[in-house]
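Hi R.,

Here are the chain sequences for the assembly we discussed:
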Amino acid sequence: MISDLFSLTVLLGIISSGIRLATPYLFASIGEAFSQRSGVLNLGVEGQMILGAFTAFYVVMNTENLLLGVLAAMGVGALMGLAMGFVSITLQAQQGISGIGFYLFGLGMSNLLFQLLVGTVETVSGFPKVPLPILSDIPVIGKLFFDHNILVYLAFLLVPIASFVLNKTNLGLKIRSVGENPEAADSLGVSVSKVRYFTTIFGGAMSGLSGASLSIALLNVFQLGMTAGQGFIAVALVYFGAWRPWGVLAGALLFSLVNGLQLWIQVLGINIPSEFAVMMPYILTIFVLTLSRSKYGAPSALTKPFEREG
Amino acid sequence: MTDLELNSGKKDRIESVTMQGITKRFPGVLANDRVDFDVKASEVHALLGENGAGKSTLMKILYGLYHQDSGEIYINDELVKINSPTDAINLGIGMIHQHFMLVPTLTVTENVALGLPSSRGPLTDLDRVSKRILELADLYGLRIDPNAYIWQLSVGQQQRVEIIKALYRGADLLILDEPTAVLTPQEVDELFGIMRQMVKDGFGLIFISHKLHEVIEISHRVTVLRNGRKIGTRPTSEVDKSELAKWMVGHAIDFITTTDQIQCGEVRLKLENVSCESDRGAKGLKDINLEMCSGEILGLAGVSGNGQRDLAEVIVGLRKVSSGRIILEDEDITGADVDVLINKMLSYIPEERMRDGMIKDFTVAENLILREHDQPKFSDNGFLKLKAIEGHAKELVNRFQIKTPSHKTMAKSLSGGNIQKIVLARELSRKPRTIIAAQPTRGLDIGAAEYVREQLIIQRNNGTAVLLISEDLDEIFALSDRIAVIYEGKIMGILSREDATKEKIGLLMAGVMPAEQA
Ligand SMILES: Nc1ncnc2c1ncn2[C@@H]1O[C@H](COP(=O)(O)OP(=O)(O)OP(=O)(O)O)[C@@H](O)[C@H]1O
Ligand SMILES: [Mg+2]
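And here is the predicted structure of the full complex:
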């Protein structure tokens, strides 16, 4: 029954899963926001995510060391970011196409490694819930916001940090200027390629972490293609959020809430075809992207390689 | 310790800079050919030459943006290697570029702080920077609001930001590449005031301009480049304007004016009570009534930023009219599609040609057909006729003397003035019936500027209606049949050329109504 959706428990359930599900979006989108603010469009996020997811899963499966799993996933993501940087910054390749290339690479590689090294569906014991003392005892709200695994907290903490870095630090100033007018930055002695390498590597690491949050915190398994387009949605969220961390947060929450709703529709067996329910977030993506004035605030030098002439 | 002490502690002041035998080759062009150039503290050394002569190239080498193929640079008689702008900045060299190097979405303070170490480590110290900006601004009379965003500023103000950027970095040699091209006469006076003050304080200044009277007014020495070669250097006191012109282009130049009576034909373009909103705090238009007939040049005088740009943009359909009607050749074109305007042979020479008039990453030939690429002349059922396009490009390159290695060269690698010529050639060559020309000779060397003026007069004599928007009163007086003055988005008055005097126009430009003038 549709009306089941509106009971308090279900609503709270939707919000709670929405918050958890926002985690992978947040990591990946914030990373992507950094690289786009500096002028690099990385469409390979999905590939970095899935390879990160596999890496984290595999490491944890073998070592049972969660921290090691996270670091390995970030390392693999960073390496792919470095490769993306090399192709798009140093070789100045067309960014859209090279991003798609990295997506396909990450997808294929994770499939291959999974079949070679794991083969069957296995689960790992991932990050446990860490209820925050006192805060989690607040009625209703406590369970909603302060009873999650550590990566969830980290993802939400990343938003103000990212905003601070972009707006209040020298690094952020360089990132913003390089993405708007690289010639101007260059004429003041700012190394455009250094800044862009930094952001693509950072973005890659965040995508890897995002993948890890799926495979060793949210679901605790690895499945082929388990990122299911979330990396692409993360890219869309950057547009939705007008390239600002807080905007990205709003977008991520919106999408994950719809995702949570969709899950609950299935759980409750409500009479909507489940395929349609699964489509909801994607339909929303398209809808929101057409509505959001995506031109507003786009870094002027986005996708434009920079080379000093002469 | 103050920033000033920090900066001056780093290095000796620049007493002299000497460039020796500088050669720089680009694909297909020898931009600098064994050029010698020097500048000393407390002097203004002007660099003159036609569009594409190699002025900007020589200066970009000095600023570390380009690397010379051969030749040396000495500072205070010591050989230096300048591999990047950072090197130049550390040596005390600053540059105000022909195309400003500012990040429009950042504030003045952020633009100044960019790339500098901060007193707060990894965090920005914008408060401190903005305080120091105000100090510097005070010292040289550079009025500026440190918290304003660059996009909110007029070009004159943006230039002040560029100067402050250089001063802040402790420059004592400043390269000014065509700083006056985008300024109003009043702003030029202000800039010259600042420059004189700097000379007194021991700065060395390199000044590039196509306006000979400016060179004569402000410089101590002048060097002329032609086709990448240095022709010579002389003390400014020994030359006059016509001599300089001759020296520069290699032959004498006649300065033209229209003298014949106008043959005013039917009304071509009519604005009825047109108002519009403007963006970013600039003034919009208020109730504009204007009529232009075929065969006349209507000059529009005014201090920049009083609505000239909005006026041009509403006519060519780039800006929404909030009330009123625009009638072109008896048809209401308010809000019409650009196609309609193109088919009515309306040409538009935008003021910001780099941004609104061309595509930097297209070739010269492609830029020359931007407006007519889908006409049968250049395309056949969706396929471009490459031969026709090439022929067209070659003809225009030749006629307008666009200096380019070939028609296949990317527009962005041309010199500043030659980029302008592409737009002018395209818009003037398509036999327009109406022309909206905003600052058409800005950035052109004197030869090219005269050629464009001549073209406008020829068009007028053939019955074209021309709206000439210019801040250069000499140009307005030389070409216009009637002169309209715009102030704060309103037309203050329209005078025939016989009735117009510079005094009358000047007062109208300042917003003083004729009644008050009496
Ligand atoms: N980055 C570049 N790549 C290729 N050619 C270039 C480049 N920069 C300049 N040139 C060429 O070098 C020549 C000199 O250009 P430069 O910009 O120095 O001229 P300029 O004297 O400053 O002219 P203007 O008065 O038009 O600004 C031109 O023919 C130009 O096409
Ligand atoms: Mg130049």
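The CA atoms of residues 81 and 201 of chain A lie 4 Å apart. The mean pLDDT of chain A is 90.

Let me know if anything looks off.

Best,
T.
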